[in-house]
Design a protein that fits this description.
single chain, alpha+beta, SH3 type barrels, 3 helices, 5 strands, 23% strand
Length: 133
């Protein structure tokens, strides 16, 4: 990963890539963008070198294969489809980032529920009456 790609990866842990249209060039490689697309939890738009665009969810990539490729499911859920790196001009982050901002909040809420369940009924809160059936 390029130094700019590595810096972006650190920054992106605190923000979302939703809506990002990368500018591939000297400081940001296609490989960097593909790695970000693989980690992204939403649909992307794959821009091919012939100008066509395909919307889908990137779930796999292999940069070490004799012909590096990505695999994705299209927005209808069909696939998987395989596209060689050589046929990709760019990848736009066009779908909703389903993980943005939710993971920490969800973790805290789950922990609070677990603590409350483990503590049992609080004072003043009636538990089950063993004399009623």
């Amino acid at each position: 990963m390029s130094s700019v790609g590595a810096a972006l990866r650190g920054a992106c842990s605190a923000m979302t890539l939703e809506g990002w249209v990368p500018q591939i060039g000297e400081y940001l490689t296609l490989g960097d963008v593909i790695d970000f697309a693989f980690d992204y939890r939403g649909n992307t738009t794959i821009v091919k070198t012939d100008g066509t665009e395909v919307v889908g969810y990137v779930f796999n990539r292999d940069s070490l294969a004799p012909e590096p490729f990505i695999q994705f499911f299209d927005e209808k859920g069909d696939g998987p489809f395989t596209v060689p790196y050589a046929e990709i001009a760019n990848i736009k982050f066009t779908g909703k980032d389903t993980a943005a901002g939710n993971s920490w909040k969800a973790w805290l809420e789950r922990k609070d529920r677990e603590k409350a369940k483990a503590a049992g009924p609080s004072r003043g809160e009636a538990g089950p009456d063993p004399h009623r059936g």
